[in-house]
Write a structure and sequence with these properties.
The protein is an alpha+beta fold. 16% of the residues lie in helices and 46% in strands. A hairpin with a 2-residue loop joins strand 5 and strand 6.
Length: 139
């Protein structure tokens, strides 16, 4: 078993909404693709500050992030960012990590996009029960 990485396509959601309404050129929507570690121990999407700045995401507040070693760090949150992986996409806020930190794909993204991790094959895929649309339990 080993680490699972996935390429995620990120887009400034506000830019895309404004472009759809004709308020800005479509080719000016800020986008980037990054390689992210699929981390089932992480709750939120974590993006390095340089990626957040490139996308022009709005800082939305602060949160105290707790690490596996019980270390606590005060980090900004930012968003909204549209994340695409394969044929699935969703809008999320993220934690803003120091520049060049590894991007982390967390539990919220796995749940909302209805994806499963196969650590033996080192892949991320859709659940067989939901090949077209994500299924989300709301109870």
């Amino acid at each position: 078993m080993g680490a699972v990485y996935v390429t995620i396509d990120l887009e400034n959601t506000t830019d895309a909404d404004n472009a759809a309404e004709g308020l800005r050129p479509v080719n000016s929507v800020r986008r980037i693709s990054v390689r992210a570690l699929v981390d089932t121990g992480a709750v939120m999407l974590v993006l390095p500050e340089d990626v957040v700045d490139h996308l022009g995401l709005k800082r939305r507040g602060k949160i105290v992030a707790t690490f596996a070693d019980d270390r606590k760090v005060d980090w900004d949150t930012a968003g909204p960012v549209t994340l695409r992986v394969g044929n699935r996409s969703g809008n999320f806020d993220c934690l803003v990590a120091p520049p060049t930190t590894e991007a982390l794909f967390g539990q919220i993204q796995l749940e909302q996009l209805d994806l499963i991790v196969d650590p033996l094959k080192q892949t991320l895929g859709v659940r067989p029960e939901s090949p077209i649309y994500p299924l989300l339990t709301v109870k």
